[in-house]
Amino acid sequence: MQITRITDLSSAGLADYSRLTDVALRRVLEPAGGLYIAESPKVIARALNAGHRPRSLLIQEQWMPDAARLLVDWPDVPVYVGEPGVLEQLTGYNLHRGALAAMHRPALEPVEALLTSARRIVILEDIVDHTNVGAIFRSVAGLGADAVLITPRCADPLYRRSVRVSMGTVLQVPWTRLPEWSVATPLLHAAGFHLAALALADNAVSLDVFAEAAPERLAIILGAEGDGLSQHALAAADTVVTIPMLHGVDSLNVASASAVALYALRIRS
C-alpha cells in the first residue's frame, strides 16, 4: 500500500476529506463523474465489489489490516493514516467507523438498460431527505426490487448520509435518474410497466387488494414527506395504492411505507 502518515492537514491529498462538501464532490473532475465518500470498511468493500474505482483511503491505525485486504487489487491507491483526534480535526466529525474512501463516481446507466430485465422497480419522486433515500435503498435490496429510478430533483443516493443509512446497498442496487414525467411515462409504459403511485386519494386501491393480482412488471412510485406525490406523478399512475391504516393515522414515513409495499408486492416464485 502507498501509506502516508498525516502530519500536515493542508496536504493536497487530503482535500477530498476536508475542503470539499458532498455537493462539491459531485462536481469535481467532471465530466468524469466526480467523487463520493464511502464510510466504513463494509461500505467501502461494497463499493469495490460494485466495480467502483477508489481514489484514496483515510483510516485510523487499527484499520490497516482491513485497508490491506480492501486494496489488494489497488496497490497504488494512496492510504492516509492518522490518529482519531487528527482525523476528526480534518473531517469535522468523529470517524467512529474508522475508515473513509474517496471513490470515483461511475457513469449512470440509461433508464432503458435498467428496465430490460426488471420486474419490480421503485421510483423516488423529489425525495430530498438523504436518510429516507438511504433507507429506501436498503428496503429495495432486502426485499428484492430490481432497480431504483429517481427524478431530477431527488436527493443524491451517493451523498454520504444516504450511503451510510443504506448500509452500502446504494452501491449494489442498480439506479439512475429519470427524465421529467412527460418523457418518463411513455418510456416506462413502452417497457411494459404498470405504474402504481403510493398515495392517499379517494380512488385509491388498498395495498392488500392490489397485491392479490399485482402486475408482472410493476413500478412503485414514492413521494416526499409532507408534500407527497406531484400531480404529474399521480396523472402518470395507472393505479393509486394506499396502505390501510388504523387509529386515525393516515400514513407512514416514506421509507417505512416503501418496506411495507415492497414486501406486499414482492415476486412470489
Report the CATH C-level class of the largest domain. Alpha Beta
Q: Provide the residue-averaged pLDDT.
A: 90
Q: What radius of gyration results from the CA coordinates?
A: 21 Å
CATH architecture of the largest domain: 3-Layer(aba) Sandwich
Q: Which structural class best describes the helix and strand composition?
A: alpha/beta
Question: H/E element string?
Answer: EHHEHEHEHEHEHEHEHEEHEHEH
Organism: Cryobacterium lyxosi
Pfam families: SpoU_methylase
Protein name: RNA methyltransferase
GO molecular function, one term: RNA binding
List keywords for this structure.
12 helices; 269 residues; 5-stranded mixed sheet; 7-stranded parallel sheet; Alpha/beta knot; 12 strands; alpha/beta
Describe this structure in words.
The protein has 269 residues and is an alpha/beta fold. The protein folds into two domains: 2-104, 60s Ribosomal Protein L30, Chain: A, CATH 3.30.1330.30; 111-265, Alpha/beta knot. 34% of the residues lie in helices and 22% in strands. The chain is built from twelve helices and twelve strands. It has helices at 15-18, 22-27, 41-49, 64-70, 84-91, 111-115, 130-143, 160-165, 181-190, 207-212, 231-236, 254-264, and strands at residues 2-5, 35-39, 53-60, 78-82, 99-104, 120-125, 147-150, 175-177, 194-198, 205-206, 218-223, 239-242. It has a seven-stranded parallel sheet. A five-stranded mixed sheet has the order 1-4-3-5-2. α7 links the parallel β6 (120-125) and β7 (147-150). The radius of gyration is 21 Å and the shape is elongated. InterPro entries: Alpha/beta_knot_MTases, Ribosomal_eL30-like_sf, rRNA_Methyltransferase, SpoU_MeTrfase, tRNA_m1G_MTases_N. This is RNA methyltransferase. One of its GO terms (biological process) is RNA processing.
